Amino acid sequence: MTGKRLHPQARSAIRAQNRVPLTRDTIDEARRGMVAATAVEVGEGPPVRSVTDVDAGGVPARFYRDADDAPVLVYAHGGGWVLGDLETHDGLCRRIVHDSGWSVLAVDYRRAPEHPYPAAVDDVERALTWLPPGPVAVGGDSAGGLLAVVAARHAGRPIAAQVLICPALDPAMTYPDLDEFGLHRDEMAFFWSAFAPDGLPEQADPMRMDVTGMPPALVILAELDVLVTEGERYADRLADAVAVRYQGLNHNFPRKLAIFDAAGLAVAQIAAFLRTRASAP
Fold first, then answer.
1. Strand partners, 37
2. pLDDT of residue 112
3. DSSP category for residue 215
4. I need a labelling partner for 280 at 20 to 30 A (CA). Which of 2, 35, 94, 156 fits?
5. Per-residue pLDDT reduced to its tens digit, 185-213
6. Average pLDDT, stretch 256-268?
7. Who contacts 160 (Cβ-Cβ below 8 Å, separation ≥6)?
């Protein structure tokens, strides 16, 4: 797509990126590379009063709390359902807690291709049921966005909000005519084939599922991300949603708090949105 200008910070980040061509044989290398890049891209994040690794109903998770009675955001990390873990998203989770006043339960869900759909969805849903009654929201970045949406659809409890960051929501991969800045179409094809080799049923496909009664959503998007339009299409399907495009930026910039000035702005927007939902049932 012509006429789109990449932000200088995004250009520098892409130049520094060590992109490993994804195949079944390079998954371990790609996983290690994402973890190794976290210190430079994300940083440590602000201090949080309590950070505890927990067993959330049989699912490993990390609980971040500044107050015992705070509402809880159940968070699913990105990484194409294949990469990423609690460490790659530790700084982001800390920043959300610090800025919003909410607690965060980060779910260490089972990853593909070793554990394809519905394993990751089941893990996020199980973590939701582990929490006691009280205000709960769901959130996730990139691939974690889909897990959050499906968990919200099938939760056996009220969900106060959805927080979606550059979410991967369209298994049909109907991408816009856009140059590839950071996240490539071939990578998404690999991720989808690893996660859902037999496709997704309608009830797990955000583009086809019944969204009646779904909770309010904030959808943070990057203008130069191949996933940008599917996030907007999902928001358009909801009765209560705000989708925000950050201009000149590429996929999942909010996680990279040590690189992008706009990452802090995006998290501040997420925090403000969560505060408005803190008293929701």
1. none
2. 98
3. P
4. 94
5. 999 999 999 999 999 999 999 999 999 99
6. 97
7. 71, 135, 136, 137, 215, 216, 277, 278, 280, 281
Question: How many Å apart are CA 138 and CA 144, to the nearest integer?
Answer: 10
222 contacts 249 by C-beta, under 8 angstroms: yes
| C-alpha–C-alpha distance, residues 100 and 98, integer Å | 6
User: With bands split at pLDDT 50, 70 and 90, how would you rate the model's confidence at 178?
Assistant: confident
Options 7, 77, 89, 251, the catalytic residue: 251
Torsion, Cα 221 88 126 81, to 10 degrees, reads 60
Q: Exposed/middle/buried for 33, CB within 10 Å: 0-12, 13-18, 19+?
A: middle
User: Can you say whether residue 208 is alpha, beta or left, with left for phi > 0 and alpha for psi between -120 and 50 degrees?
Assistant: alpha
- Separation between Cα atoms, residue 119 and residue 14, nearest integer Å: 32
pLDDT of residue 127 exceeding 80: yes
CA distance 144 to 165: 9
Q: Determine the Cα–Cα distance for residues 216 and 213; give it in Å rounded to an integer.
A: 9
225 is catalytic: yes
Angle at 149 between CA 253 and CA 258, to 5 degrees: 15
Of residues 7, 103, 142, 205, which has the active-site annotation?
142
Query: How do residues 49-104 score in pLDDT, each as one tens digit?
Result: 999 999 999 999 999 999 999 999 999 999 999 999 999 999 999 999 999 999 99
Catalytic residue among 66, 85, 90, 225: 225
Model pLDDT, residue 2 = 43
Look up 251 and say whether it is catalytic.
yes
